[in-house]
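Query structure, 124 tokens:
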């Protein structure tokens, strides 16, 4: 059973998207439905909070990558936070650590994003 949930809230300077449960090919459409209108707006900075996400497959990864790393880049490129050690390792193995802005926690993202430009906070 899929218990995926997505919530969207404003948490300046970000639009915060909190994910929980399992993000896979069956639940990706629910996320895309929430993300698509945000990406249509210029300079929207999205922060995906993955702290309660238990599983992500390649379809889910694709949505995160597309939302965070736009081509051409826009002022509002996104970030991720709250990844488990296993998820952080997966992102590193896929070479995403150098392409995505990653923060250990939501609080770190909110605190650092005010002090640093969006691309200065890449976490290794």
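Result returned for the query:
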């Amino acid at each position: 059973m899929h218990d995926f949930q997505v919530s969207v809230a404003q948490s300046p300077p970000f639009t915060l998207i909190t994910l929980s449960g399992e993000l896979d090919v069956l639940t990706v459409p629910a996320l895309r439905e929430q993300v698509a209108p945000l990406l249509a707006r210029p300079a929207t900075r999205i922060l995906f909070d993955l702290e309660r996400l238990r599983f992500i497959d390649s379809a889910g990864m694709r949505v995160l990558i597309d939302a965070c790393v736009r081509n051409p880049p826009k002022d509002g490129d996104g970030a991720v936070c709250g990844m488990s050690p296993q998820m952080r390792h997966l992102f590193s193995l896929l070479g995403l650590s150098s392409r995505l802005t990653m923060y250990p926690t939501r609080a770190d993202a909110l605190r650092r994003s005010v002090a640093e430009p969006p691309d200065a906070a890449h976490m290794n």
